[in-house]
């Protein structure tokens, strides 16, 4: 990505010294282009109101190669698309500013913009002084408005980048431009075949592969959802302008919609006046499933099916999902006192309601599609039993009150698939009503014994699979493999909760809870025991069946909240199975940290076959180096080895390790830590899943995801990958359909390629060099950051950390505990 520069207002000429445009690569085919917009008789009269008065807008459209509404081009130039998008939306924005604030402020804005552009080109001190003088002459109110205007300009530039990225992905898939290194699953499969990997091995790997993308709220998306929605509209209209041949009226309507969204963003308060709650963050995360992810997953699976079929291989089995989605929103309580047991319950129910709404709409559409009468005898008998249970008058009144889209009356036996799917629709409706009742305080509404609602994804899958099997057996396989197959894959991937909620808490909080228990039963202070004694006692209690937590346990509020969380976990596992994922222990250092969580789960009502898997999070340098030894201690305990049944998850932290040791030392410790942890797991016959806590910035392990996965140590992925998608990176990856597809494709391809053709391990010479550089860099980093008295005052003055902490952009309070 090129560095951000201050772009031109409307000129299309290449500025001297600017980065040259990417070479256009024509496709091997030709397409019929639309008419020249300058010759379109409707163009002038169909333009929106602003364009009649503003020549810059008309110039930005008429002079555009990609945004003139003349149809999708067969060439692509990333730089030109970015420039054309910038020119158009900035011209619209400046026109709106002039109309809404008056000529005087607009002239100030234009003057500052022009002075900035001039200084950017010349780098002359005189031009910088002129800009400084102009800014110094502004009033406080004008300065605030100017800052807001340039903030909008930068946000609109981000929209242009998203559009250019989406267009580049599409043109690459159309073979209009070379893609470079394989970043698609189809490319990875072809590359592996070319390397001599057998097609059978490729098929086995991809059908066993599982990538879990874990959405987190932090680092926080700074933009309000209201702003994101408006910018999303602008982005979509820009894409519409370049994808279809438009009449002058259609083009004008798109520009009007863009202008409306831009003005809405300009007139919206950019600052949240109250902090969001964790529930709000979860709602924001789930919105991406409504907009792109839920529909994008089956489309992506179909592309993989085609890639496999092209190699003479079967499609992906219906029962397997190569992608999973999880979340920390409302489950990450480390440093956030607002994530309580009640909050966790709320976000689980919220995710379930969102999932049920999506499935309900899909089932209503499917009922229309499956109108055929041919079915197997077994399926017809199933439909007959359902039909006989219905009373026509009762069914009609019930469905009328629920205001279904159609099919209120009892369906005839000549439409057996509709009879079965109508019952699924009724159960989904009942499930939604039960969830809403629970949120309103009626806990008994989610009764595990109630067979009129769905509690487990298998209950929803079963009738869908029965429909599919019947259609296949009677020769309607094409129908079966249409929208019905898509829905089956969605249920397999998303379950009844869309995302599995991870729980994260700091290790000391668990130790304090166990300490309260041991003190209460007269064993002394758990926190004062050494690691050997802690481990021995925890294992003995895990083998024992006696209860430890007394009803009259005296404890602090913090301990009570920890125990309430484990109690809520047990409850949710019972009434909403499949809604929770991993229990992550932050600042984990020793084996007893893991055993304590297992014990607390059981003691607070968790059934042994419903306990959450527990993943230690190794974050600091010493913990990364010592982590493999602690895994060996855990795996050496027969009881624990039997409990995990050959599977263990370990999370590694990129942010805190970098803050602790510096990026160089942290990166090498992460690399070696993964190698050593995998060796220990292999030694005990355990399949290790590494959970990468990566962010978008370099300081959080950010970088190109495809290369980041391929650069992991050999034999550490093996088809199993969990990785966080943090904060504003969620918008970049899933805010638009093309980018959503690209994200799924990229992670799948990289995981497959690393598993079957891993990188070479570094030589001993390279390892020695890395060890030396890591040691020197860590020592120097710590000397500056931790031992230099002037560093903290400098850091506070040179960075906007305190100002950012005062903004209401996230649910956690700004100060974090000192040990995190």
Structure commentary:
This protein has 820 residues and is α/β, with parallel strands linked by helices. The chain is 59% helix and 6% strand. The protein is built from 32 helices and eight strands. Strands 1-2-3-4-5-6-7-8 form an eight-stranded parallel β-barrel, surrounded by ten helices. α27 (705-710) links the parallel β7 (687-693) and β8.
Structural class: alpha/beta
Which outline best applies?
globular
Question: Strand count, sense and closure of the main sheet?
Answer: 8 strands, parallel, barrel
Spatial separation of the terminal alpha carbons: 33 Å
Give the helices and strands, then pairings:
Blueprint: H1 43-46, H2 49-53, H3 55-62, H4 78-101, H5 103-122, H6 125-136, H7 140-173, H8 185-194, H9 199-208, E1 210-216, H10 225-243, H11 248-266, H12 278-310, E2 323-327, H13 341-369, H14 377-389, H15 392-402, H16 416-439, H17 457-473, H18 477-494, E3 500-506, H19 507-520, H20 531-543, H21 557-575, E4 580-586, H22 591-603, E5 613-618, H23 621-635, H24 638-644, E6 647-653, H25 655-661, H26 663-683, E7 687-693, H27 705-710, E8 720-726, H28 729-734, H29 737-756, H30 764-785, H31 791-798, H32 801-806
Parallel strand pairs: 1-2, 1-8, 2-3, 3-4, 4-5, 5-6, 6-7, 7-8
């Amino acid at each position: 990505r090129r560095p951000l520069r201050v772009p031109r207002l409307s000129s299309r000429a290449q500025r001297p010294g600017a980065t040259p445009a990417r070479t256009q690569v024509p496709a091997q085919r030709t397409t019929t282009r639309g008419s020249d917009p300058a010759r379109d008789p409707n163009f002038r009269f169909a333009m929106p109101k602003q364009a009649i008065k503003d020549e810059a807008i008309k110039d930005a459209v008429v002079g555009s190669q990609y945004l003139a509404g003349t149809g999708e081009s067969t060439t692509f130039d990333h730089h030109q698309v970015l420039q054309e998008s910038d020119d158009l939306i900035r011209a619209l924005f400046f026109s709106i500013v002039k109309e809404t604030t008056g000529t005087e402020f607009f002239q100030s804005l234009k003057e500052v913009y022009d002075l900035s552009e001039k200084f950017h080109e010349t780098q002359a001190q005189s031009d910088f002084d002129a800009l400084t003088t102009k800014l110094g002459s502004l009033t406080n109110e004008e300065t605030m408005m100017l800052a807001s205007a340039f903030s909008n300009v930068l946000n609109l530039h981000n929209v242009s980048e998203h559009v250019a990225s989406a267009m580049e992905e599409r043109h690459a898939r159309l073979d209009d431009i070379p893609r470079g290194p394989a970043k698609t699953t189809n490319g990875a499969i072809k590359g592996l075949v070319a390397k001599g990997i057998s097609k059978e091995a490729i098929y086995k790997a991809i059908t066993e592969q599982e990538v879990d993308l874990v959405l987190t709220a932090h680092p926080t998306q700074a933009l309000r959802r209201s702003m994101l929605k408006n910018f999303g509209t602008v982005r979509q209209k820009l894409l519409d302008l370049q994808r279809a041949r438009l009449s002058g009226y259609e083009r004008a309507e798109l520009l009007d919609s863009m202008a409306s969204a831009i003005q809405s963003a300009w007139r919206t308060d950019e600052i949240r006046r109250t902090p969001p709650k964790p529930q709000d963050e979860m709602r924001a995360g789930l919105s991406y499933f409504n907009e792109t992810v839920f529909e994008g997953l089956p489309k992506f699976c179909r592309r993989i099916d085609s890639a496999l079929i092209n190699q003479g291989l079967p499609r992906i089995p219906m029962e397997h999902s190569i992608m999973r989605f999880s979340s920390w929103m409302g489950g990450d309580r480390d440093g956030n006192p607002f994530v309580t047991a009640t909050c966790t319950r709320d976000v689980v129910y919220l995710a379930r309601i969102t999932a049920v709404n999506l499935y309900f709409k899909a089932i209503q559409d499917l009922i229309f599609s499956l109108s055929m009468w041919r079915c197997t005898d077994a399926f017809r008998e199933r439909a007959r039993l359902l039909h006989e249970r219905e009373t026509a008058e009762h069914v009609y009144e019930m469905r009328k009150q629920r205001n279904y889209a159609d099919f209120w009356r009892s369906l005839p036996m000549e439409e057996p698939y509709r009879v079965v799917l109508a019952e699924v629709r009724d159960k989904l409706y009942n499930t939604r009503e039960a969830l809403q009742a629970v949120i309103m305080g009626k806990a008994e509404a989610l009764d595990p014994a109630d067979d009129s609602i769905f509690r487990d994804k298998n209950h929803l899958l079963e009738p869908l699979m029965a429909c599919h099997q019947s259609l296949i057996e009677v020769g309607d396989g094409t129908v079966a493999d249409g929208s019905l197959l898509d829905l089956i894959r969605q249920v397999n991937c998303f379950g009844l909760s869309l995302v599995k909620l991870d729980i994260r808490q700091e290790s000391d909080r668990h130790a304090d809870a166990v300490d309260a228990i041991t003190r209460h039963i007269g064993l002394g202070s758990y926190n004062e025991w050494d690691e050997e004694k802690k481990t021995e006692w925890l294992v003995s209690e895990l083998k024992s069946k006696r209860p430890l937590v007394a009803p009259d346990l005296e404890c602090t509020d913090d301990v009570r909240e920890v125990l309430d969380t484990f109690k809520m976990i047990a409850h949710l596992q019972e009434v909403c199975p499949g809604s929770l994922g991993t229990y992550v222990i932050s600042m984990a250092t020793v084996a007893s940290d893991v055993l304590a969580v297992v014990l607390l789960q059981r003691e607070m009502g968790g059934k042994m076959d419903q306990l959450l898997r527990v993943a230690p999070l190794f974050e600091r340098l010493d913990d990364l180096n010592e982590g493999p030894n602690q895994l060996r201690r855990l795996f050496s305990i027969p009881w624990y080895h039997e409990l995990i049944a050959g599977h263990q998850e370990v999370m590694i932290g990129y942010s805190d390790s970098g803050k602790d040791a510096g990026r160089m030392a942290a990166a090498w410790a992460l690399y070696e830590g993964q190698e050593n942890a995998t060796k220990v797991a292999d030694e005990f016959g355990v399949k290790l899943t590494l959970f990468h806590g990566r962010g978008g910035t370099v300081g959080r392990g950010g970088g190109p995801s495809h290369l980041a996965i391929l650069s992991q140590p050999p034999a550490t992925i093996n088809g199993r990958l969990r990785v966080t998608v943090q904060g504003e990176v969620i918008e970049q990856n899933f805010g638009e359909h093309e980018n959503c597809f690209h994200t799924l494709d990229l992670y799948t391809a990289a995981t497959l390629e690393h598993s079957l053709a891993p990188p070479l391990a570094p030589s001993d010479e390279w390892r020695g060099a890395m060890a030396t550089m890591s040691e020197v860099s860590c020592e120097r980093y710590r000397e500056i950051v931790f031992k230099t008295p002037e560093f903290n005052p400098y850091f506070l003055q040179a960075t906007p950390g305190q100002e950012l902490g005062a903004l209401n952009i996230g649910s956690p309070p700004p100060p974090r505990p000192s040990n995190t």
